[in-house]
Specification:
The protein is mainly beta and 149 residues long. The chain has a single domain (8-123), classed as Deoxyuridine triphosphatase (dUTPase) (Deoxyuridine 5'-Triphosphate Nucleotidohydrolase, Chain A, Distorted Sandwich). It has one helix and eleven strands. It has a four-stranded antiparallel sheet, with no helix packed on it.
Length: 149
């Protein structure tokens, strides 16, 4: 296996004139997702931004929408549900839930890179209810317990 997966992608009319997701460099893990609409996101505002894209992800795989670090650092714009999971049986339009945590209105233009998508294998779990689970050195120390002296 060469580390690639084939995924069918469809564009609606709003995305016909913008590039399909692609890797910016040979070492990039994520493909850029672009907006298929213009909008303004006020400080504190959030919106499901359209991409005009529809995917057919094979069973056993998922898509993960993730923030772009440049938007987060420079503008305070990130994803609310990060990573945003796209299940293999979902066939609706891919939308990116952006939030503006910055102090100025953020303008999104059609074709702007707004997020990235990574495709990942996953397994399904079978939960086995029990009265006891094994102990570990960490045990039930809670959040942040591994960094406390």
């Amino acid at each position: 296996m060469d580390g690639t997966i084939e995924i069918k992608i469809k564009r609606d009319a709003s995305a016909r004139d913008i590039p399909l997701p692609s890797y910016a460099t040979n070492g990039a893990a994520g493909m850029d997702l672009r907006s298929s609409e213009d909008m303004k996101l006020p400080p504190g505002g959030r919106a499901a931004v359209r991409t005009g894209l529809y995917l057919e992800i094979p069973p056993g795989w998922e898509g993960q929408a993730r923030p772009r670090s440049g938007l987060a650092l420079k503008h305070g714009v990130t994803l609310l549900n990060s990573p945003g999971t796209i299940d293999s049986d979902y066939r609706g339009e891919i939308k990116v839930i952006l939030v503006n945590l910055g102090e100025e209105t953020f303008s999104i233009k059609k074709g702007d890179r707004i997020a990235q998508i990574i495709f990942s294998r996953h397994v399904r779990a079978k939960l086995l209810e029990t009265e006891e689970i094994s102990d570990t050195e960490r045990a039930s120390g809670g959040f942040g317990s591994t960094g406390v002296e």
